[in-house]
Amino acid sequence: MGKTRLEAFSDGVIAIIITIMVLELKVPHGEDARVLLPMIPIFLGYIFSFIMVGIYWNNHHHLFHMVQRINGSVLWANLHLLFWLSLIPVTTGWMQESHFSPLSVALYGVVLLMAGIAWPIMMHILIKIHGYESPLAIAMGKDRKGKLSVTLYAAAIPLAFVSRWIAIGLYIAVAVIWFIPDQRVEKSLPQD
User: Fold this and answer.
1) 158 — alpha (psi -120 to 50), left (phi > 0) or beta?
2) Which of 17, 44, 118, 166 allows an S-S link to 81, with CB 3.0 to 4.6 Å?
3) What is the number of H-type helices and E-type strands within the chain?
4) Structural domain boundaries in the chain
C-alpha cells in the first residue's frame, strides 16, 4: 500500500487544524495599543499551539520520508494521532477564554499526552512493517525524547492544579526538546 494518500490526508488535516486556530484570533477594535492587551493570552496560546502542531507536522514529514510502505494498521494509528491533534484548537481556545484556568491547562495537557502516546504507537507499527533492523528502527532507537515527552506531559497534568505556570513550563520544555527535527531521522534520510 502506498503512503502518498496518507501523507496528503495528514497534511490536509494539519492545515485545517492550523486554520481553525488562526480563525480564533479576532481583529481588535480600536486604534491604540491598549486594544491589543486583552489579546496577549490569546496570541500566546495561538503561538504555542501553532508550534506544537508544527512540530508534529515536521516530524511526521521526516518520519514518512523513511517509510516505504504502510498498511491498514498504520492508517488507523495515523488517524489516532490526527484525532488528538485535532483537539488542540478546542483546548487552546478554552485555555485562552478561561485565562489559563488550572482545569483548562490540565485538559490541554491530556490532549498533548494522548498525541504523545499516539506517536510511538504509529512508530511501533511502522517499525513492525519495515523490520527491527530497518533504517527506520535504527533511527528511532530507544526514543528517549518520546518517553521523556510523555513523562513530562503526565507530570504536568496534575501539576496544573498546583501551579498552571509550572504545567505550562513543562509543555514548553517538551516543545523545546522537539523544536529541532529529530536528528536520528535527519541523519538517516537519503541525501539529495
Assistant:
1) alpha
2) 118
3) 9, 0
4) 4-188
Which residue blocks in 131-163 are alpha helix, DSSP H? Answer: 135-140, 144-159
**Residue type (1 letter), 44:** L
pTM: 0.89
pLDDT by residue for the chain (192 residues), tens only, comes to: 778 999 999 999 999 999 999 988 888 888 888 888 888 888 888 999 999 999 999 989 988 988 888 999 999 999 999 999 999 999 999 998 898 999 999 999 999 999 999 999 999 999 999 998 888 888 888 888 899 999 999 999 999 999 999 999 999 999 999 887 666 666 665 555
Amino acid at 41: P
Rounded to the nearest 10°, the torsion over CA 185, 186, 187, 192 is 130
Q: Long-range pairs for 2-6 at CB < 8 Å and ≥24 separation?
A: 2/69, 2/70, 3/64, 3/67, 3/68, 3/69, 3/70, 6/64, 6/70, 6/74, 6/75, 6/78
SS3 (DSSP) at 35: helix
- Cell triple for 150: 510523555
